[in-house]
Design brief:
single chain; 268 residues; Pnp Oxidase, Chain A; 2 domains; eight-stranded antiparallel sheet; elongated
């Protein structure tokens, strides 16, 4: 991920919140194989466990997911770990999470710079988080650790999505969340035999919110107004993020300017 300071989000807490709000991640592996492509990617939802908010911690957390056993990417993983100790892949894997709200930005939104110089170009506003780490594959259904991992992962993931994504909490007028225990046990056990479990230790995590922070106040106001005028939920959400990120950038600049002024006064 290309990291410009202007767009980079340093807070691990905010990055973890982003993953929980956008749990569908794209896992990418690079596994040499005579049968399958070297590079493969799949979209799968993830359950997150946070271990530390310290950027220096060797392991920040874990991602827990599952994938269809018949997926060619699963087959490449199984090919590598069948005889590997502890079911660990040799090389790091990458998972990319992208925010639900992203949009093309037309130069027409830049109401300050476009009329003055016309030196503007289109871009795209988006937010994303990327992690790297080591993956352990749970693939042998005859082993208790595989069965237990899949049972816990399916339960935790479905509960998170039912409550946090769908809002089914069972409180007041809300419907109760669906549970894996609502389905026949034999049916769930059959499903578990058709999947593999993937547990990733998060060693590196990066995040960026590219929301017009590089623009001046006038152009940002034009971007905010332009997205609000779209009359869509996505437009409104992006307008809110542009304002939030722009205000934070302005506050950061004011704080830096104040600190420089104080330093000059001390030098005098």
């Amino acid at each position: 991920m290309y990291q410009r300071d202007l767009y980079t989000e340093p807070s691990l807490q905010l990055l973890f919140e982003f993953i929980r709000e956008n749990p569908l991640g794209l896992i990418t592996t690079a596994i040499p194989s005579s049968c399958y492509p070297l590079l493969q990617s799949s979209h799968i939802p993830w359950a997150l466990n946070v271990h530390s908010h310290d950027v220096e911690a060797p392991v920040k957390g874990t991602l827990r997911g599952h994938m269809a056993r018949q997926n060619p990417q699963s087959k490449a993983m199984l090919e590598e770990v069948t005889n590997a100790p502890n079911g660990k892949l040799q090389h790091d894997v990458m998972v990319m999470f992208t925010g639900a709200d992203h949009h093309y930005v037309t130069p027409k939104f830049y109401t300050e710079t476009k009329p003055q110089s016309a030196k503007v170009v289109p871009t795209w506003n988006y937010a994303a988080v990327q992690i790297y780490g080591k993956a352990t594959i749970y693939h042998d259904p005859s082993l208790p650790e595989t069965w237990n991992y899949l049972s816990n992962q399916l339960h935790d993931l479905s509960q998170h999505c039912e409550t946090s994504i769908m809002g089914y909490t069972g409180h007041r007028e809300s419907l109760p969340p669906w549970s894996v225990f609502d389905a026949p046990k034999s049916f769930i056990e059959g499903k578990k035999r058709s999947i593999i479990g993937i547990e990733i230790t998060i060693e590196t995590i990066q995040g960026k919110f590219k929301m017009s922070q590089d623009k001046g106040h006038g152009d940002r106001q034009g971007v905010i107004a332009g997205f609000r005028n779209l009359g869509s939920d996505v437009g409104t959400n992006i307008a809110d993020m542009v304002k939030e990120r722009g205000d934070a950038q302005d506050a950061k600049k004011r704080k830096k300017s104040l600190r420089l002024d104080c330093d000059r006064q001390v030098e005098k």
